[in-house]
Amino acid sequence: MRPLPRSWLRWLVTLVLLGLASAALAAPPAKGKKGKKPTAEELEEQEELFDKQQRDTFPGFFRWWDALSLGQVKINAIDTSIAPKLRLFISVLYGGKSTVLTAADDWEKEVRHLEVKVASGEEKTPKRLLTVLDAGSFVAGKDTLEEEEKPRSATLQPLDKAKIGVDVVVVAAGHGGFRTVENLESAHRTAVGAVLKKLAKQNLNVIWYGPALYTYRSFPGLENDLSRFDEDRKQCDIDLLKWRMDQSRELKEGETAAPPPPCGLHSGDAAKAIGAAVESVRFRGKHARLFGIPVPKEFSCTRAVQSTTDIQLFDMDEVADRTADTGAFEEALRLLVHYGKPGNRKVLLYLGDGRDGYVDDETTCRQFFTTSKLHCATAGDGKKGEEAKKAIQGCVQSKLDKRATGVQERFKLRAQNWLALARSADVRVMAVGYALERPDGGMVSQRHERERLGLLAEKTGGTYREVTNVNLLTETANATVDEVLRERVLTIDANLKSLEHYRIVLSAVFEHGETSGQKGTVELSTVLYEFDAPEIPSGWQWWLKQKNAWLKEKVGTILYWVIVVAAIILVLLILWLILKLFIAAFKKLFGGLFKKAGDAAKKAGDVAKKGGDVAKGAGKAASDAAKKSAGGAAKGVKGK
Hints:
Layout: H1 6-26, H2 40-57, H3 59-69, E1 71-79, E2 86-94, E3 111-120, E4 127-134, E5 137-140, E6 154-158, E7 166-173, H4 184-198, E8 203-209, E9 213-215, E10 227-228, H5 233-248, H6 269-280, E11 287-288, H7 302-308, H8 328-339, E12 345-352, E13 357-358, H9 361-371, H10 385-424, E14 427-434, H11 447-459, E15 464-467, H12 473-485, E16 488-492, E17 501-511, H13 513-516, E18 521-525, E19 529-532, H14 540-555, H15 557-639
Parallel strand pairs: 7-8, 7-12, 12-14, 14-15
Antiparallel strand pairs: 1-2, 2-16, 3-4, 3-17, 4-5, 6-16, 8-9, 9-10, 11-13, 17-18, 17-19
Helix pairs in contact: 2-3, 4-6, 4-12, 7-9, 9-10, 14-15
């Protein structure tokens, strides 16, 4: 008999050992020598041991389960603009008593500590940079980092304390397809209203979409109402240009900044008016302009859909009556990019079923392809009974699959541009998708349509949540908003090196406590993120620039210039005093020498003057003698 390969033997031994271990763990606890039952403490120890063995055997499963049931830790954004400091925007979610993961204001009570690990350059294993114990203290990675690599400080703050605002555009489905599910219209409106109420202190707007888009604008006479998105577009562009010009100039003393443009993001009373407007907005038509993706012409059944759609007054289901916008999603991105404030967190928050195009197109297109002789009506020719039926059904499904594939390809092309814009502008997509069933057994949207929402959220660092019960719409929407508003800002003086490549991971140690009904702790970690530090300037010029920016931010523009002028005058005065003292000391030290040198020069001048006088006298005597001698000689010649 041929022996089994060694690999088979190893598998056999492993299976036997696993079976024995499972039987031992499943067996009732053994009694003591005297036949006594184990105590409660012994039973608890055995339960903990069993849980540990299970976690060691299936670590991946339990990490997944803990992430869903206990909590999650996320790095939403990495900001290196303040290098050598590092700023992380993080979220910590946990289950609690809610049916969905949420972020509570006091999540520090659920988290024992946060730990940040960093690897730089060619390092493969991240080293512990620091451990954050609470919002005011941290412990540096003493054993793993060189002294110059250790962080000098760290702060953990909510967004408001870090003086960081939030810009949000809420995109809400408003087509007539919601009428097919009982209570969906009212539940959806309530959920959108709850979201807008939570966001009232932020900068926000809403896009309510059906066959046309509706948004809020603060033009006189349009208060408490949503208007067509394509209305007043020229005036909106003019107001935006004026606002940008005003934002770019320095304000003079006593001047106030111009109010935000009427077509942008709103806060305060205008934000409250948006909520009031949504309470009365109508659900219109059976066309959803979410992405505005055209259907391939070769698989178009639009005419069939239009002919079977019950068009009501002002529902605007006709192609000619639709707006010329690019769809609710892209227009929301543009609002955030054009009107968002620098430094604010930017979020596109979606609530709806994810449908794009006609909401009944699958049903009507299936009927159209089945009955059309140009498509599948003749696919069963030459066949009988069940065979002919299957041939027609196969043809129809093939047409529908190709049609959906064509739409997905168009979505892919447009999504690439959307994702590039969202990443460059740091816009996160937070989405709540409705996976609700209709009375006829169909769904309000197809799975691939909701997967688009998940893709956009995942690729922009956001979160996708899915709802299967109408009664959970508001709770899920509130959890999504809480995740946005309860984000934390972790600022670390991390001594980043100029142009260095880094890899970073964040972990959180959760207390089980009341959250999961278990005892002990569990550690959850993020994936490994990579980033490059920017070029970090150095020297006194950079130091002066940093201090100048800090002072201006702390005291304001007017007081800043007062301080600068006073500082310049003070510096000039000090320099004048120093120069005066220097001149006095110079005179004191070198004045005597200058005087002696002057006296010596004067004496030398006197001597030189006397020498000159003597020389002048000698010259005169010589001249007189020469004259006399010449005169005598002349007389002698004459006498002869």
